[in-house]
Structure formats: structure tokens, C-alpha cells
Write a structure and sequence with these properties.
Blueprint: H1 10-28, H2 35-47, E1 50-55, H3 61-71, E2 76-80, H4 87-91, E3 92-96, E4 103-107, E5 114-118, H5 125-128, H6 130-137, E6 139-142, E7 145-148, E8 154-160, H7 172-175, E9 178-184, H8 189-200, H9 221-229, H10 236-250, E10 255-257, H11 261-277, H12 285-296, E11 301-302, H13 304-308, H14 313-323
Parallel strand pairs: 1-8, 1-9, 2-5, 5-8
Antiparallel strand pairs: 3-4, 6-7, 10-11
Helix pairs in contact: 1-2, 2-11, 10-11, 10-12, 10-14, 11-12, 12-14
Length: 338
């Protein structure tokens, strides 16, 4: 039987929240005008989940991942997904050794802390599937032999939201492995002007040494923060609220596919991580509400009529949030919300 983790000290939670908010601020000095994206991505990383970034070309999706690799002092790997990419190009392959008597495993780029799967929807399903085991179990199996990945292994994938020629839609099973799907929008005019001014001063998105990051987390700190998030207290009412929201999507007549149990787990973990980001040792219904669109929208499938009417998955998640009443308790003690 697994023992419950010890309660999280409020002062430790407050200090961790300050550390994470400073991390978001540091990322915001490189990726301008995307504060909500950066905060949600940090929440996903602290929750131990993978993230899918979707947006039009040129909105700093790749730069965002490179920035976090620098901030987290992480071993960084990158795979540019293309139609001719093979699974072994991602996981690795067995090659004959120098003596030619036996095969040795040559590791692929997936053996890292933070993997950028760039334009993931450009690779065929067979290659996309190579990530499934890695994302779920943090190991890969090649030639019948399992190889463990780094404890902090995380995939941040990007995909273009407007170009469909030469792309392969991600299957539901793979989408379900992403803790969150985050939309990357255009920056504001102010942020765009600030970007041009930075470039005039020597900033180069291809040269991390020009990022001018004010601070970095020490190697291994990400795992420590994940352990702290696992100690955030969640009231039973908030746990039931997570499950009720997910189950509401299964009863929505506008959807042909509701979110599965993995979505309940993802929403719970994300809400707990957001509480730590906010410097709290307890989770609130607002943590759940805030993360629900990013956690659930990519896990549901619109029915034909809803698609014809111009509906969206985000609207159906919003409908679930309206239909399921939030619990009144939001503190560790269970005191009523003011």
C-alpha cells in the first residue's frame, strides 16, 4: 500500500510559488507577449505532463521550448518531424559493433530531459506512435529490449494550426497523452515592437547566448518541484469536481467522444501544480476551472452536427464548466469560500 506524502508546509509552498513565478517572468523576457502560455506551460512541467503547442507559423513556439530548456538547465533534444521520419530516428537503433559480432543500441534524440517534437503532425502515424510508450511510461522498447528515459523526460510538441497539406492529424490516443494543449496566439502590437527592438540590439532566436536570461533553475530542481506539487492538499470535494467535469463531457450530446479517465487524472495533476505555482499548499476549484480548457478540449470530439454549426471543443468544455456546480470549499481546512 502506498503511503500518503507528508503535508506541504505553507511557507515551502509560498517559496516554491515565488520561484516558479520568477521562472515565468524570466521566460517572459525572451518570449514576449505570451504570459498566459508561459504560466500554463510551467504548470504542465510541474505536473509532470507533456504539452502540445498549436499556433500559426512564427509565433515563437520553438523559441518557447528552447527558452525553457535553458531555464531548467535541461538536457535538450529536438526532432524535426517530416513525412519520411522513421521511428528509429526518434528512439534509436541497434547497430553492429566494431567487431561485427553483436548489435549495440545507439540512442536516439528521445534520450534527453526535454524533447522538442517540432511540427509533430508532419510525420506519419507509425512514427508518431513511437512516442506513445515514451510519453506514457518514460521508456522505449527497441528490438525487444526496454530502455529507460530520464526521470524528468518531457515532450513539448508543436503543430501548425493553419497548414494541412502534408500533415497527419494526431490520433486521439496520442492527443490523450498530452496533459495540455495550448493555443499560441499573435503577440500584442507592443510586444511585437519590443521584439523588433530586441533584435536591433542583437537578439537571435537561434543563439541562446543572446537570450540574456536573468536566472536558471539548477539541474534536478524540476524533479524537486514536482515532488512538492505531489504534496499539495486537495479536498475531496475538489477531487469530485474534477471527475464531475470530465464525466459531463461524456454526457454532452454535441460530442461523439467525451474525455476518458486519463483526463480526470490530468486535470487533478494540473490543478495541483497550479496551486503550487500560486504559492499555495492547497488546491481550489478555481485551479480546476482555469486549467480545464487546456486539459480537456483536445480530448473530446465534436459530433457532425456541432461541426456543421461551427461549434468547437472549447465551447463544449465551457458548457461543462457551466453545468457542473463548483464546490464551496476551497481551503485546506474546508472553510467555506468567502
Amino acid at each position: 500500500m502506498t503511503a500518503n506524502p507528508p503535508p506541504l508546509d505553507p511557507e515551502v509552498a509560498r517559496a516554491a510559488g515565488q520561484e516558479l513565478q520568477a521562472l515565468a517572468a524570466a521566460a517572459g523576457t525572451v518570449v514576449l507577449g505570451q504570459n498566459a502560455l508561459l504560466e500554463n506551460l510551467i504548470v504542465a512541467l510541474i505536473a509532470g505532463g507533456h504539452a502540445l503547442l498549436e499556433g500559426v507559423p512564427g509565433t515563437a513556439k520553438t523559441l518557447t521550448v528552447q527558452t525553457f530548456a535553458e531555464l531548467l538547465s535541461a538536457d535538450f533534444g529536438r526532432v524535426q518531424f517530416t513525412p519520411d521520419l522513421m521511428p528509429t530516428d526518434v528512439t534509436g537503433v541497434g547497430v553492429l559493433n566494431a567487431s561485427g559480432t553483436e548489435f549495440e543500441f545507439r540512442r536516439g534524440p528521445i534520450f534527453c530531459d526535454l524533447l522538442l517534437a517540432d511540427e509533430i503532425n508532419r510525420a506519419p502515424a507509425k512514427t508518431q506512435a513511437a512516442l506513445l510508450e515514451a510519453m506514457q511510461e518514460r521508456r522505449v522498447t527497441v528490438d525487444g529490449v526496454s530502455h529507460a528515459l530520464a526521470p524528468a523526460f518531457t515532450v513539448i510538441a508543436t503543430q501548425n494550426s493553419v497548414e494541412f497539406e502534408g500533415t497527419y492529424p494526431l490520433p486521439e490516443a496520442q492527443l490523450d497523452r498530452f496533459l495540455v494543449k495550448l493555443e499560441v496566439d499573435y503577440p500584442s502590437e507592443e510586444a511585437e515592437v519590443a521584439l523588433l527592438e530586441r533584435i536591433a540590439r542583437g537578439f537571435d532566436s537561434a543563439a541562446p547566448e543572446t537570450f540574456g536570461l536573468p536566472q536558471r533553475l539548477p539541474a534536478g530542481r524540476l524533479l524537486e518541484l514536482r515532488a512538492l506539487a505531489a504534496r499539495v492538499h486537495v479536498e475531496p470535494e475538489v477531487v469530485r469536481y474534477c471527475a464531475a467535469l470530465v464525466r459531463a463531457t461524456r454526457n454532452d450530446p454535441a460530442l461523439t467522444l467525451g474525455a476518458g479517465p486519463r483526463a480526470s487524472v490530468a486535470l487533478f495533476l494540473a490543478a495541483r501544480a497550479r496551486a503550487l505555482f500560486e504559492g499555495r499548499d492547497f488546491c481550489t476549484p478555481d485551479d480546476v476551472k482555469t486549467l480545464a480548457p487546456a486539459v480537456l478540449a483536445h480530448r473530446v470530439l465534436l459530433g457532425p452536427e456541432a461541426q456543421i454549426d461551427g461549434g468547437s471543443s472549447a465551447e463544449r468544455v465551457a458548457s461543462a464548466l457551466r453545468s457542473v456546480p463548483a464546490p464551496e470549499t476551497s481551503t485546506r481546512s474546508g472553510a467555506p469560500t468567502p
